[in-house]
Automatic annotation (TrEMBL):
Protein species of origin: Enterococcus devriesei
Protein name as annotated: 2-aminoethylphosphonate--pyruvate transaminase
Modified residues (N6-(pyridoxal phosphate)lysine): 191
Assembly, per entry: Homodimer.
Function: Involved in phosphonate degradation.
Length: 364
């Protein structure tokens, strides 16, 4: 049964991205190492940063491994982190900080609201030892898009190291990485760049990487070590996900062919607006009222009858779509992603299926 993934990643990829994985590469192979170097280079271009100031470090594992690489190897014992958390991914940064016993303070925000620079300024005033600010850009828990601009400005004024989990946003919305002076931006292969799962990457300010090279608490996640080895000739330190790397390279080319990040953003935004409009027409209400991002939307369970997610999920899958369960802590929701190789006609068809479900399969 063929179906499309309407999830936050892994997501639906093109046939050509999947075909790119049909070659077996040796990790020592020069051609393969060159592909790694080109990927690193292309990511800098996508982020709009210079090679003098920034570098890209690829890291085996899912997105969380990239976040953990930054937290476990780039934080000095004397640092004090302020972590903004308005969802599960902000809380994951907290959990990692706890695991490494970092000195941290949590700025907790409701899941339907965004962190505010004014609140952060107060927290910094109350905790003058704070040296690092960490936040999520697109909080996939709810689909809310946090605003980086004012917070970045504050981080700059206060000379804080600025860490951004841009996992589900990089490639799908323009981010002015150097203008915002982000020191470490983390994303992964299977989100808006539309590759397959297998590695994460960090767009890092070289100066900070160099200055923080001796603080790694693990060997495998040592971001500086990985950088030093990769910088020589594109060799990853340990076995890399070779097929995923080839798929990612192809995905980057296809992003360029689509017209770059802005064009992809327009497509995602169009999908998302259409989804929310059509869902509202058939009575589904979104959890996020303000600052809804263009990637994924949380919808409340319908009020009437005894809605069962598993039943709904199975019906949609049978009709060609896979959606995601909710992740909001206090409300019953499901989530529909509109990223990946997804177009307005897919959204039209999905909403027809959901409408059909409400009419025939849904026992009220
Ligand atoms: C996907 C995602 C991650 C990483 O999750 P993994 O399951 O480790 O890939 C981290 N942060 C955000 C905001 C995400 O959307």
């Amino acid at each position: 049964m063929e179906y499309k993934l309407l999830t936050p990643g892994p997501l639906t990829t093109t046939a050509t991205v999947k075909q790119a994985m049909l070659t077996d590469h040796c990790t020592w192979d020069q051609e393969y190492k060159t592909i790694t170097q080109e990927i690193r280079q292309k990511l800098l271009v996508l982020a709009g940063v210079s090679e003098q100031e920034y570098t890209t470090v690829l890291m085996q594992g899912s997105g969380s491994f990239g976040v953990e690489a930054v937290l476990s190897s780039m934080i000095k014992p004397t640092d004090h982190l302020l972590i903004c958390a308005n969802g599960a991914y902000g809380q994951r940064i907290v959990a990692m900080s706890e695991r490494y016993q970092l000195n941290y303070t949590v700025y907790e925000v409701a899941e339907n609201a965004i962190p505010l620079a004014a609140d952060i300024a107060k927290l910094i005033e109350a905790n003058p030892t704070i040296t690092v600010l960490a936040m999520v850009h697109s909080e996939t828990t709810s689909g809310i898009l946090n605003d980086l601009t004012e917070i970045a400005q504050l981080a700059k004024e206060q000379q804080l190291l600025f860490i951004v989990d841009a996992m589900s946003s990089l490639g799908g919305i323009p981010i002015d990485v150097s203008g915002l002076e982000i020191d470490f931006l983390i994303s992964s292969s299977n989100k808006c760049i539309q590759g397959v799962p297998g590695f994460s990457f960090v767009i890092a300010k070289r100066k900070e990487l160099e200055q923080r090279q001796t603080f790694a608490r693990t060997l495998s996640l040592d971001l500086y070590d990985q950088y030093k080895v990769m910088e020589k000739d594109g060799k990853w330190r340990f076995t890399s996900p070779t097929h995923t790397v080839l798929a990612f390279y192809q995905a980057l080319i296809e992003l360029e062919e689509e017209g770059g990040i802005h064009q992809r953003y327009v497509r995602y935004l169009t999908n998302n607006r259409l989804l929310r409009q059509k869902m509202s027409e058939i009575g589904y209400r979104p959890f996020i009222k303000e600052h809804q991002g263009p990637f994924i939307t949380s919808f409340y369970y319908p009020k009437r009858g005894n809605f069962k997610f598993d039943h709904f999920y199975a019906f949609l899958k049978e009709h060609g779509f896979v959606i995601y369960p909710g992740k909001i802590s206090s409300q019953e929701c499901f989530r529909i992603g509109n990223i990946g190789e997804i177009y307005p006609e897919d959204i039209d068809r999905l909403v027809e299926v959901i409408e059909h479900y409400s009419e025939v399969a849904y026992v009220s």
